[in-house]
Amino acid sequence: MSVASATKNAVVLLSGGLDSATVLAIAKEQGYVPHTLSFDYNQRHRWELEQARRTAEHARVGQHQVIHFDLRAFGGSALTSDIDVPKNRDLADRTIPITYVPARNTIFLSFALAWAETLSCTDIFLGVNALDYSGYPDCRPEYVAAYERMANLATRAGVEGGAKLRIHTPLIEMTKAEIIRTGLRLGVDYSLTSSCYDPLPSGAPCGACDSCQLRRKGFAEAGAADPLRY
Fold first, then answer.
1. Angle at 127 between CA 73 and CA 200, to 5 degrees
2. What is the secondary structure of 13-71 as a DSSP string?
3. How far apart are CA 136 and CA 128, in angstroms?
4. How far apart are CA 62 and CA 110, in angstroms?
5. How many CB atoms lie within 10 A of CB 83?
């Protein structure tokens, strides 16, 4: 579908994981033509990019873009440097883990904001979650609200009195089980997703990192079978 023919465009950040695939389905259910945006930042778990491509193709999005840059230049995270990914960590520990990538969502949202302006759309969908998450500071409602305020001070539409940009975070107060149930209701194919921070070369999940633990817990609580093999 061409941009010109779309009347209700939205930019959807699509990592290739469970949450972003669910957000994509929600955006479609709400009548948006989704344009998906993924990021190759030289992350350890780059397998997710292939799953993002497959998910976008399956959902028949308007456009799918992959932005390339290298956060290994800064490091500071187990996902962008040679630091071991923690395994079997206590998820009740709410300290910020070493898998936090400094300023990642701020960087991602800035790219999404730029693309939204060129698409003449005012809606960005982001799959952050403040309940079943690993303690990341850029997944909180306060952060999203602050970024949205900033975005409306930094865009042509915002300063010229046009429609205000909105960052949609439909998962932010859901448990992982609620997210999975929502996705299953909307027909999300979770076999096309990858959640693992430290997958095997085949793409198979490790089963023990924070993200794998949260995913397995979510499927168990949802009473559903995870299509991935651990």
1. 55
2. E--SSHHHHHHHHHHHHTT-EEEEEEEES--TTTHHHHHHHHHHHHHT-SEEEEEE--G
3. 10
4. 20
5. 14
What superfamily in CATH does domain 3-222 come from? HUPs (3.40.50.620)
**DSSP 3-state assignment of 160?**
coil
- What mean pLDDT, rounded, does the chain reach? 93
The pLDDT of residue 167 is: 98
For residue 207 the two structure tokens come to: 């089963």
Can you state the percent helix, strand and coil of the chain, rounding each to 5? 40, 10, 50
Residue type, 59: A
Q: Find out whether 165 and 124 touch, Cβ atoms under 8 Å.
A: yes
Task: List the structure tokens of 112.
Answer: 């999404």
Place of tokens 């009548």: 31
**What DSSP designation does 125 have?**
E
Task: Check if the beta carbon of residue 223 is closer than 8 Å to that of residue 216.
Answer: no
pLDDT value of position 4: 38
Locate tokens 């990019």: which residue? 49
| Residue 193 scores a pLDDT above 80 | yes
User: Can you tell me the distance from the alpha carbon of 172 to that of 170, in angstroms, rounded to the nearest whole number?
Assistant: 6
User: What is the residue extent of each domain of the chain?
Assistant: 3-222
The position carrying tokens 């998820």 is: 91
Instruction: Phi first, then psi: give them for residue 100, nearest 5 degrees.
Output: -65, 130
What is residue 5's predicted lDDT score, i.e. its pLDDT?
Answer: 42
Q: How many residues does the chain have?
A: 230
